[in-house]
């Protein structure tokens, strides 16, 4: 569902803030999912794939932290 006019009337949350909440949740969820992938790769002895997933997990954590900071600033009127 997309709309050029939705600005929070339906959800009570402005689109840009809602989008930040979604982004943070997606980053955190991805970091958790990647932990399983890392363990799978380690179980099979594939350190190359495990390292790739660790890097991706670090990027997801970084994205979540940046998103949380920006969201907090926006919600606090910054």
- Element order, helices and strands? HH
The average pLDDT value, as a whole number, equals: 89
Return Rg in Å: 17 Å
Number of beta-strand segments:
0
Terminal residue distance = 29 Å
Q: What would your notes on this structure say?
A:
With 78 residues, the chain is mainly alpha-helical. The chain is 74% helix and 0% strand. Helix 1 (15-43) packs antiparallel against helix 2. The chain is elongated and about 50 Å long. The mean pLDDT is 89.
Give me the secondary-structure topology.
Blueprint: H1 15-43, H2 47-75
Helix pairs in contact: 1-2
Task: Kindly list the characteristics that best describe this protein.
78 residues, elongated
Task: Write a short abstract of this structure.
The protein has 78 residues and is mainly alpha-helical. The chain contains two helices and no strands. The two termini are 29 Å apart.
